[in-house]
Amino acid sequence: MGDTVNAKSHACIVGIGETEYTRRGGIQGKSELALACEAVIKAAQDAGISLEEIDGLASYANDESVPWLMQEALGLPDLRSATMAWGGGGGGCYASIAQAAAAVESGAADYVAVFRSLCQGQRKRFGQGYAVPHSPGFLDPFGMFAPPFMLAPLAQRYKHDFGIREEQVAEIALNARENAARNPRAVFKDRPLDLETYLNSRMVADPFRLYDCCQENDGACALIITTRERARDLDGPVIRILASGQGSEPGWGSGGLGSHNMPLEDYRAGGGSSLSKRLYAKAGITPDDVDTAQFYDHFSYFVLMNLESYGFCGRGEAGDFVAEGNIRWKGGKLPINTSGGHMSEAYIHGLNLAVEGVRQLRGTSTSQVTDAGLCLLANTASAAILGRE
Amino acid sequence: MSRYLPTPPPNPPMEAVPFWDWCRKRELRFQQCSNCGRCRHHPAPYCRFCTSDQCQWVPAPEEAELFSYTVIHNAVSEALKAYVPYNIAVVAFPSLGVRLISNVIDLEPSELRIGMPLRLTWQECDDGTPLPLFLGKNG
Q1: Per-residue pLDDT of chain A (389 residues; tens, 9 = 90+)
Q2: What is the DSSP letter of A191?
Q3: I need a surface site. Which of A28, A96, A294, A333 has the fewest CB within 10 A?
Q4: What structural domains does chain A harbor?
Q5: C-alpha distances in angstroms, A364 versus A177, A226, A236, A360?
Q6: Residue of A144, A207, A258 lying closest to B88 (CB–CB)
Q7: Residues of chain A contacting residue B69, judged by C-beta atoms under 8 Å apart
Q8: Phi-psi region of A147 (alpha: psi -120 to 50; beta: other; left: phi over 0)
Q9: Strand partners of residue B88
Q10: Among all residues of chain A, which has the CA nearest to that of B48?
Q11: Interface test with B, best of A261, A266, A268 (most B CBs within 10 A)
């Protein structure tokens, strides 16, 4: 792969760490802060560095394990960089990786731990109703309380305009569940799903059926990011961050969670059509070079939209693309969400998908893609392209 | 007609206060840039097309169209349990180039069609503020 890549990025992922993942409410004896610490400790061990060497922290979605508590809990002697991808919930996930990469490339820090910890049982439940800041005063009076409600109209329009059939979109959930069956960490490892069950599942927010929605979970995970030079001095595998970034189309604004006033072409594109071009150019690759992708599967239809926005098929063609088996581990052109993703491994707000991307490039996934050299991580507002050293 | 949903009254930020002041007079108005004439929603302190901070509030036509929608089957609170399934509509005003989140209060879920004509109506919420809602029959 190395010869095809001319990325100038020097940041690398050298460690991954995860707690157990459970259904919402499954973790009661440990705090969200304790889970964050556990994930960072495991990631440092995996990287072969001591905790004292971590001098940067990065997170997103206003993670409540704030840097000063983390510094105290982990005894970090010299915390020089602490960055938070601003707003946007899980959309900031790969932005936090971009900020960590920028921190090590600029010298602001040597080893940054990127982490996300979620205890939806102990704290706020994302899927439940709450006042939303995205379009203040214009959503609550009309009963638009929770993320599936806000995002369903985008999926509805996409489905309508391109004639997407439920049998096609079912592939997102079925693929995730099949991959999860091979993954001992997956919360839904032993819960097989078939098309009939999918099609008979209850409607949550039309067109989202139950199985179009991700899980709600407890758990934490972390990555250790450093420079390529330092990475090469460590014993473990080195995974390059060839490109990473954030941002949606100029008209996206508060996006699908907000005003619903973006242009039609953006409304049904899932947010990645500009960012994808920027990142492919930065990494010096094309979609054809990508071996596997981990898409942010909060809601299935957004995976379809982003398969298109990230150039794996034309606009409106993702229904056929997935129905032809292209995203499956067995025989697929682009196996996606190989850990089971948010739908069937766990919803750790995007970062567990990054951990799986690293695993693919190390050759240690439970649904390993043969000779995986390039992995895309993408959601509606940020993305990263990882490459094997 | 009884209330479509027992939802909380609007709690607008400063930019959106005029929108709801007009609603109290049962007038649906959108923010229009005084310089370039383009409308925007939700309300914002500057025009994103020309950066002017001067604006006026122009009346919307009574007629609109259904740009997209969802039908909610999950009640997020006890109070909403008697109201599901209900719809949330993305209502477009093509002549102004803006869309509003609202509800179509006279149609069953199966009657909703993207592109169908809608007509403005009003229903008061708890604090007496009239909410701009829509009718689909004879829209």
Answers
A1: 444 455 677 899 999 999 999 999 999 999 999 999 999 999 999 999 999 999 999 999 999 999 999 999 999 999 999 999 998 788 999 999 999 999 999 999 999 999 999 987 777 676 665 555 566 789 989 999 888 999 999 999 999 999 999 999 999 999 999 999 999 999 999 999 999 999 999 999 999 999 999 999 999 999 999 999 999 999 999 999 999 999 887 777 666 777 799 999 999 998 899 999 999 999 999 999 999 999 999 999 999 999 999 999 999 999 999 999 999 999 999 999 999 999 999 999 999 999 999 999 999 999 999 999 999 999 989 999 999 98
A2: -
A3: A28
A4: 2-126+212-388 (3.40.47.10)
A5: 19, 21, 13, 6
A6: A144
A7: 153, 156, 206
A8: alpha
A9: B70
A10: A251
A11: A261
Nearest-by-Cβ selection for A205 from B20, B74, B99: B74
Helix (H), strand (E) counts: chain B: 1, 8
**Cβ-contact A372, A360 below 8 angstroms:** yes
* Cβ neighbour number for residue B65 with a 10 Å cutoff: 19
A 98-157 near B (Cβ less than 8 A): 128-129, 131, 135-146, 148-149, 152-154, 156-157
Distance CA B54, CA B34 (A): 5
Question: How far off is chain A from B138, nearest CA to CA, in Å?
Answer: 22
Least Cα separation, residue A179 to chain B (angstroms): 28
Q: Running DSSP on this structure, what letter comes out for residue A210?
A: G
CB distance A225 to A114 below 8 Å: yes
Annotated catalytic residue within A111, A267, A296, A310: A296
Cβ contacts of A190 within 8 Å, gap of 6 or more: A181
User: Model-level pTM?
Assistant: 0.95
Assess whether A60 carries a catalytic annotation. no
Please list, in sequence order, all residues whose beta carbon lies within 8 angstroms of the beta carbon of residue A117, skipping any fewer than 6 positions away: A32, A33, A35, A36, A39, A63, A65, A219, A220
